[in-house]
Structure formats: C-alpha cells, structure tokens
Amino acid sequence: MAGFDDAAFYGDRWAAVYDQRFAGRDPVAAVDFLAGLMNGGGRALELAIGTGRVALPLAARDVMVHGIDASQAMVDRLRAKPGGDAIRVTIGDMAEVGVTGPYRLVYLIFNTLFGLLSHDKQAQCFGNVARVLEPGGFFVIECFVPDTTRFHRGQAAAVQEVTEDSAVLELSRHDAAAQRVTTQVITFDQQGIHMRPVAIRYSWPAELDLMAGQAGLKLRDRYDGWDRQPFNSASPGHVSVCQPR
Ligand SMILES: C[S@@+](CC[C@H](N)C(=O)[O-])C[C@H]1O[C@@H](n2cnc3c(N)ncnc32)[C@H](O)[C@@H]1O
Asked: Is 14 helix (H, G, I), strand (E, B) or coil?
C-alpha cells in the first residue's frame, strides 16, 4: 500500500475534498504578489500545482503558468475547471523539477515544501529550482514558522469542526529529532469515519536560507504574508523570495 514516502500519497488521499476543505483560503493576495513579479513577462512554474487554486487565477492575469504535481487525481480536478485544460502540467516529484525552463518565477506555496519529508529532499528541490530559474528570476515559498509549543509530550489533538451531524478531529504526533509531524484529520459523519493523512517535515527559516545558499540562491525578501507586512519574531508564517546569486 502507498505510504507517506510516495510523492502522490497526499494528493491522491485529499483530491476529493481538497477544494471544499480549503475554499476559505482566498488566493487573491497571493496572485497579486506573484503577478507583480511577472511584469517583465516570461513563464511561471508552480511546484505542487494541485487543483489550480492559485495557478488558474494567475493564468487569468495573462501569466503563462506551468505546473508540476505528483498526483494525477489532483490534476484531474484542475483539468475539470474552466481554463484548466490550457495549463501545461508535468506529473512528477517536485524535488526533481522535471522540466527544462528557464522560468522567471518558480513558486511553492501553502507550506507544501514541507511535504518533502527530509532535509535532503528539500535541499534537492532548491537545487533543481536554481537550475530552471532564469537570471534575475524569483523563487517564492510560503511556509509556516514551526510552533512546537502546540505539542504536549509529542502529541496534539484539536477539534476542527462540530456540526449537527459531524465532527472533525485532528490528531498529530511530533518527532522533534526528525522535525516531522504526522497527522490524521478524521471526520465522523453519517456516512462513517473518513481519514485524511498528512505528513510534513518542517524547517525553520534559517534552515531554508541555508538550503537556498547551497543551491546558489540568496534571500531577497521575507514578509509576514502576501500583503508584504514585515516578517518578525511573532510572524506565524512567511513568504520568502529568493533569487540566483
Ligand atoms: C496542500 S496541496 C497545495 C496545492 C496548491 N499549491 C495550492 O496552493 O492549493 C499539496 C500538493 O502537493 C502535491 N505534492 C505533494 N508532494 C509532492 C511531491 N513530492 N511532488 C509533487 N507534488 C507533490 C500534492 O499532490 C498536492 O497537489
């Protein structure tokens, strides 16, 4: 049976509910930010393009967007949407970046870099992004800042939602040595029990900057979010922009 180390695992297990579950995550600010980096023209590449939550509205702004994703089930959802047929998508592992480029912009958002479950895989991804970026191009990542205080004795349990006939629980285990969190999002409803698994390997911003440096990239800007507020020690997440050195 496929497991967390299978690149398609997350997408294949979440595709059926992904758009509904993240419907509240408005892509407008991200699209504005990314479109602003494309003023000079060129092509953009979304790693882990998923169902096109951001790629489709970005393409609607006249940006030529390509994508990579490991999960055919996620890409099928993208294809079923208006404009989804027009986006070139390569099925593959985002760590390998199996395209030639060059791209003015490569972006990997919504914490998805952390879906690569080791330092080495994340560093491999940075290295391959550097290979396909054009001179002066941008690599944009959006990640949360790890907050290990939410775990007690390596565990966390949270109630995400309760309705008249359903409840959604999130149960997690934290491995501090591996910087890894394994979660089941469990829905109880009148159809039964549904499990949606997620595994991530988190990195602090400083580790990401080291990976960038080793790949021949350098951090240009780090913001608190898509609205370009300054990043600071209280920021729960960051949008970081790297460029070739
Ligand atoms: C949280 S979704 C993000 C989708 C999209 N970027 C967005 O912002 O809505 C994660 C996506 O990453 C893809 N994915 C996870 N691991 C991957 C890997 N190793 N290579 C390529 N795609 C991967 C999944 O299939 C899924 O489409």
From this structure: helix
- 161: β partners: 168
Residues linked to residue 217 through DSSP beta bridges, in sequence order: 244
Instruction: Give residue 56 CA to ligand 1 midpoint distance, Å.
Output: 15
Omega before 102 within 30 of 0, i.e. cis: yes
Residue 150 makes CB contacts below 8 A (sequence gap 6+) with 156
Q: Do the beta carbons of residue 4 and residue 197 sit within 8 Å?
A: yes
Q: What is the pLDDT of residue 8?
A: 96
CATH numbers and ranges of domains, the chain: 9-146+202-244 (3.40.50.150), 148-200 (2.20.25.570)
Query: What does the block give as tokens for 88?
Result: 């070139």
Residues of the chain with pLDDT under 70: 1
At 5-55, the pLDDT tens digits run 999 999 999 999 999 999 999 999 999 999 999 987 899 999 999 999 999
CA of 164 to the centre of ligand 1 (A): 32
Stated length of the chain: 245
Q: Which of 10, 17, 75 to mutate to test the pocket of ligand 1 (most atoms within 8 A of CB)?
A: 10
This prediction has a pTM of 0.96
- What's the confidence (pLDDT) of residue 44? 98
DSSP state of 95: T
Supply 229's token pair. 């507020």
Identify the bridge partners of residue 221 per DSSP, sorted by sequence position: 241
Among protein residues, the one with the nearest Cα to ligand 1's atom 16 is 7
